Amino acid sequence: MPNCSFCDSAVMKGTGLLFVKKDGTIFNFCSSKCKKGALGLGREGRRQKWTPAARKFQEMEAVKKTGKKAEAKPPASQKPAAAQKPKAEAKAA
Question: What is the phi-psi region of residue 24: left when phi exceeds 0, alpha when psi lies from -120 to 50, beta otherwise?
């Protein structure tokens, strides 16, 4: 499956738009919204907040700034394990 040239989402087989420029460059678009944004308005998909490409781009920028990969947050359903108290050892008499 090809990805949309604008928003980087998957384009299902039999859907979307295929645009070929005179120089032979091929663009795949998932919707007319993406086609208009890229060709008509000259926008970049990675600069639009609603696109998956923007989320990837922001994550890569965060990695460059901090120098390490962002840590994934644990799901809200999992609670952190309670600190276990050491058992009192029985004294031999």
Answer: left
Structure tokens of 50?
């609603």
Q: Where are the chain's structural domains?
A: 17-66
pTM of the model: 0.59
Half-sphere exposure of 20 (CA within 13 A, CB side): 2
For residue 91, give both structure tokens.
């004294």
Tell me the pLDDT tens digit for each residue of 32-60.
Answer: 999 999 998 888 888 888 888 888 888 88
Alpha helices in 1-92 (DSSP H): 32-35, 52-66
15/1 Cα distance (integer angstroms) = 11
CATH of 17-66, one of 3.20.20.300, 3.40.630.30, 2.30.170.20, 2.40.50.140: 2.30.170.20
Judge whether 51 and 29 are in contact, CB under 8 Å: no
